[in-house]
Design a protein that fits this description.
Length: 412
């Protein structure tokens, strides 16, 4: 019997509601503190994230990278994340590291490939990300230069990730469900975030993204089958008790049912076997709640073809200078992400600059005019794309008629 069920029998209704509110608030704010004291928290979180498994090559130094990761589009080598300045992340700031995990963008402003599970890590709190960074900084620096990108053309061109991100990446921190227990929310935070279970246990489409409504339903990875983790009683965990799931994560076996092998054996060895009993039971509680059809992505974004077309036009015409992340180049090319001119109410400034270009000024290089290259509809589509992408939240209210008016009236 958990503490909330005990309280429900002992407390009057008004006090019970207050008690539940306090428990919920504590659950939202103490995820980092549940597991370990602060001095060991970063190491514990790195274990929960299973960082060592992907960032250690066979026979290589821990965290020094070089592990070969096969994809349908070629292969990648995991980067060195020791604090070596030349070949690792020794020159990365906390903000650089947080941007990689939360935004999927590296120190150079380049989009990361989703072999790095930033689609899950985006849910991890900034405090936990900072703790992992602090722990990694305590490691012995290892000099190991890794050429990460070994993908086939055109996937080796990072700007190709823009459309993928537009379609399949939903950025945002984990949000607790006030209707669920603290234990359930902690489990959801670990399963959906740090442990990134869906990355291996979900089938993917031809673009390498998790299939909608198929999350956690099992998938083949590296030639091994990652089990169905839903409550399906035949092929999933429906017949497993919460304690059995927790024991399996701790020991890699469930007597009479199965034992861990292949990649899951490594996950147990490097990650879940190191977690506290409290966290293992939290994960088990959450996993037991997964619906058999795993239609979890109620927030799955509808495919907006205007955004897709905007991403394509942006890649073709803008990203070479303004970068796929919209951050530009400091003191050379202005950013589009967070730029007040982009966020203005009616988008008139964007239209004028795209049509007419802009001269060099204050050290910034000139921007060419696109009046003869892009149609009114295309300019409007690009304008709306940059107004609603990255951290920009302006309205997508630029129209082809506006563009036509500006084009016809040079004095505007």
């Amino acid at each position: 019997m958990n503490i909330q069920s005990i309280a429900s029998r002992a407390l009057p209704g008004s006090f019970l509601r207050l008690f539940r509110l306090v428990i919920y608030v504590l659950g939202c704010t103490t995820f980092s503190a549940i597991a370990q004291s602060s001095d060991k928290n970063g190491e514990y979180l790195a274990l929960a994230g299973d960082c060592i498994s992907c960032h250690t090559a066979p026979g290589g130094k821990p965290y020094a990278g070089g592990l070969k990761m096969q994809t349908p589009f070629g292969y990648l080598l995991s980067p060195n994340i020791t604090p070596d300045v030349e070949t690792g992340i020794g020159s990365w700031s906390k903000d650089d590291f947080a941007r990689a995990l939360h935004d999927g963008v590296n120190k150079k402003g380049q989009d990361l490939y989703p072999a790095m599970p930033f689609t899950s890590y985006t849910k991890v709190t900034r405090a936990d990300v900072d703790a992992i960074y602090d722990y990694l900084r305590t490691l012995k620096p290892v000099s190991n230069a890794v050429k990460v990108n070994q993908l086939d053309f055109p996937f080796n061109i990072r700007t190709s990730m823009m459309v993928w991100r537009e379609l399949f990446f939903k950025q945002g921190f984990f949000k607790s469900d006030p209707n669920q227990s603290v234990t359930w929310n902690r489990g959801a935070y670990l399963v959906e975030g740090l442990e990134h279970c869906s990355a291996c246990h979900s089938p993917r489409n031809i673009m390498g993204a998790i299939k909608p409504s198929k999350e956690f339903t099992g998938a083949v990875i590296d030639g091994w089958y990652a089990l169905n983790l839903t409550s399906n009683s035949i092929v999933g965990l429906g017949s497993w008790s919460t304690q059995e799931i927790a024991n399996y994560l701790k020991t890699g076996k469930n007597p009479g049912k199965t034992t861990a092998f292949g990649p899951m054996e490594e996950v147990v060895h490097n990650s879940t076997s190191h977690l506290t009993e409290v966290d293992l039971m939290a994960m088990a509680t959450y996993l037991k709640s997964l619906p058999a059809n795993s239609s979890l992505r109620a927030d799955e974004r509808k495919l907006d073809m205007n955004k897709v077309e905007g991403a394509r036009l942006y890649i073709d015409n803008c990203s070479a200078c303004h970068q796929s992340s919209g951050r530009g180049i400091v003191n050379v090319i202005p950013p589009l992400d967070g730029n007040p001119a982009i966020l203005a109410p009616n988008g008139a400034d964007i239209i004028k600059v795209v049509i007419r270009g802009i001269n060099a000024r204050n050290g910034y290089i000139p921007m060419p005019a696109f009046a003869s290259k892009l149609t009114d509809d295309e300019i409007a589509t690009i304008a709306n794309y940059v107004r609603t992408s990255w951290d920009n939240s302006a309205s997508a209210n630029v129209t082809a008629a506006q563009v036509k008016t500006v084009r016809a009236n040079p004095g505007l």
